[in-house]
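Hi Y.,

Following your request, here is the sequence exactly as I used it, all 433 residues.
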Amino acid sequence: MLFVTDYFTGGGLETRIIEQIKILKRKRIRFYLLCNKFNPIYEKYFDEVSEALILNNQLHDISANDVLTDVDTICNFCESHNIDYIDCHPFMCVLPAALAAERINTPISFTLHGVTSGDFISNPDHLAGKTLYHLIINYGFDKHFAVAEYLTSLYSFLKNDLIVRNGFSLNSMEYRGFKNTRAVAIASRLDVVKSQLVIDFLPSIYKSKAIDTIDIYGDGDGASLVKSFVAEKHMNDKVHIKGWEKNLSEKLGEGKYMLVFGMGRVVLDAMLSGTPVGVLGYGGFAGLVNHSNLHNFAKNNLTSWESDTELSKELKKLFIKPSDYLFNKKELYEFDAEVIWQNYYETIAATNHSANKMSQKIYNYLLNNPNINILRDYELFLTSVRALADGDRPVSQKLFFAIFQNQFDTISDLKEQHKKDKRRLLQKLLHHN
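Below is the corresponding structure, written out as tokens. Let me know if you'd prefer a different format.
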């Protein structure tokens, strides 16, 4: 099995794949990884790792030749290592991975991890690339998986084959009971977006009289923002930046913390350690996880986009009845990694690659126009839309035009002239199709 993803440096995706490998190793599967950037601490889990891919989501100029180079890299790796299945994850690698799978007739799946997994090109000047990726995500894969139910609604145009939750081994789960240590932890990948969530949350947790210690675990390109905020607000007496923690569930299991805050994988690590956990989602603090809201949080991949929850009220309820916020193995069955990955294995074992006309057309389009910028070159892309979507008219209608129109509905800061230019382009699109 070959995993293909942009980065493998540290976070929820990496933890999930390592869990997957640990369990499926028993099936005598060999595991390989192709990516753009890799953290060597994970090297022991793979039979071989290569950082040979060119594409990543920080690039603003991507030529057709860049894509084709990555296609060749993936094809050559698969053929030299006898790869039977490609397990693809976001972001930019999605296009060359699907095209490579078509060229070498190898089954391939794509996993939706979050809101941006299938729609990660946000620059309005990159409409051509945005549409190209929508076409390949929709038509270029034999299987589509999602980590939670909300993604199947968000990406309703995709055929979802299986919910493959993030999970953990129930055999290693602890039930320690609640202990008011007056210490809490916040754990998160500290990219710019999530660092801002932490910064927004810190004032309310800092002023809580029930909390004396706040340890922050995580790292990323936004970590310096958190450090600066803590220093500027003179919070160092309570708040301590701990950096990235290799085994968070073990650290939490030491019993130091009465409560953990985070989203996604962090929530699982907290439950695994027997520690109450609060969801710090994209909308802010969404509440503590309890028996009545667990399944709803699970459907949303243990995060949230809305928040009107007061921390003080949640803490009061925790102290009154802590048993409502602790779980046993039976209650967490839907997160049992053994069951999750067995279902996944049975699904991919029965998967064969089906010839894909869309992938073939996109590959030929890139091959015939090797020097184009696949993100920006509207005009050449427009002349190819009909050819790409020939026989699949709903593709260009439902995806291409809907995506384009959505730019004006969701991006409020476009200048008026920019809007007019884009609307003229929309008229061209309609004319070409």
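Confidence is low (pLDDT under 50) at residues 393-419.

Thanks again,
Q.
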